Amino acid sequence: MLRLIATSLCLRCQHVPVLPSNLRACSTLSSVENQQTVEALYELSVNIQKVRKLKGWVLHQNPAYTKEVAGLLRNMGASGPIIAHILAVHPEAVLCNPEQLQTQQELWMSVCPNHRELIGVIEKFPASFFTASSHHENQRKNIAYFQSLNLNKRIITKLMASAPQSFGRPVEQNQLMVCTLQQAYKELGGDEANMKIWLQKLMSQNPFVLLKPPEMLTQNLVFLKNRGFTTSELLRLLSKLRGFVTELNPDSMCRTLAFSQEAIGCSDAELREVILNCPALLYYPESTLTERFEGLFSAGISMSQIIQTPTVLELTTQIVNYRINRLKARGYDISAGSLDIINGTKKDFEMSFGKLQLRRERPLFNPVAPLKADD
Fold first, then answer.
1. With CB atoms 3.0 to 4.6 Å apart as the test, which of 57, 101, 125, 144 could cross-link to 17 if both were Cys?
2. pTM above 0.90, yes or no
3. Distance of alpha carbon 231 from alpha carbon 224, whole angstroms
């Protein structure tokens, strides 16, 4: 009998939603939905069925501040459809205390140029704005620190939106990572006058770089230096990897370099040149590289072409085949020409393809060629 009761209780517990830690202290879970919350969301044209399906536990919370949150967003210039969208994808927002949200708004407005841009950020990253009040002091200190570095306000806004964890933790941790990046830049021969721009670009391209252990950056640079890369080459790599150098580790790079060297059949010096032209090779696993090499070979592309344009390995096999088929339809033989035409982003390819089509449709006029005259 006791076993039966225990089993029944366990099954019931499995259906009880777990609250996020930042909401447990100020919200009470009820067995029935909070009708005031449901009615307020209906009035705002929020997709209630979507909320019930994805985050139904929110509707069981008390207290909730649906009207107050909607009013704050409306006062910042958000339209009805935008408010409905924000509350549908992040309904936890209605559990945030209005006074705490006012503090959050003031913090964000210290880096956002106007309310319109802040609403754009909230629409894309609602979880970054509707955070726990316990983070406010850390946020304030981190904002002040990044402002002291004279970073562009838009960069700080992007960091807060994309990697809010960086601002919710003690400022000392961010200071340590930034100092490590600055030290690496200077030791590799970087121009101190350009360091701010370099740092801004690095963090905007990979906001999560701040969350990585500083020693990981040091270990990776030491590994690459031991593989023969000079300090100037390491600086190029550090810049081209766009902060993803902290996503790597010596073991994975060692495996990838060994595989690439065997596949290409080149010397250490030649491999370094390939890596400098295509740093992405450092973080692709062997399985991905195998698939992409085989895809290029099956399309009639030679290894010498790949070595000349190694960045083609950054493209998936599906993208390569799609672009090659479009070129074939125009009579272009990719195996006999440069891979530059299929390289790059979608926009780059469309531009190259458009120029190729234009050249074929409009033959060049030779002003010195003799004109044919009728007999």
1. 57
2. no
3. 10
